Amino acid sequence: MDFNSANYVSNPTFESGTSGWSFQGDMSRSSLENEGYGGSGHSLHIRASDTLWTGDNSCQVTLNNTSLQSGQTVTLRFKARWLHGWPEVLLRLNGNWLETAGTLPVPANLGTPGLPNSRLVPNAGPAIYNVTHTPSLPVANQPAVVTANSHDAGSVQSLTLYYRIDPATSYTAVTMRDDGTLGDAIAGDGVFSATIPGQNANTLAAFYIPPQTISVRRPVSRRC
Questions:
Q1: How many domains does the chain have?
Q2: pTM of the shown model
């Protein structure tokens, strides 16, 4: 805040951290950033975790001049950059003696989501999820059925389960099926299944399903 060409805001550029500032209500998670904006080496990252209510939710600082009188001319000024959320901001004096509001410019191209980023790959593998085994604690010599869902833009043809019997370090590969046979409950439901043979009591079996074992049939676009 300027009055007679003097700035009466304590620590206006945050070069002294957040000293003198108080974060109230839903802005209590606001914090200092070691990246400046508008000529400063630091900035305040304002975070609002809920709908704004001007009676309590705010970032406050005490002014150096308390002798302002009615009728005097002062200037409220701030520099800010929009990051996320509602772009309108409000700056005001305690008691609503003076206030100013503004709309921060929002870039026309907001990037991701919706646009390619550094994680883009030409052909990402299918997602494997809901991996489980039944029963959770097999009794002696009882087989365990491992099931998993998969999703891909194309049609997932098969998965491969790898299992080992502790303390062995070598794995056995078993094709996971979705045809209603060899432990698979329902054919064509998108749930792939494979069976680990029954083992002796107190035997531990470990298993995993690596993405590179997935066979996928992708649709081919043809022009007539």
A1: 2
A2: 0.47
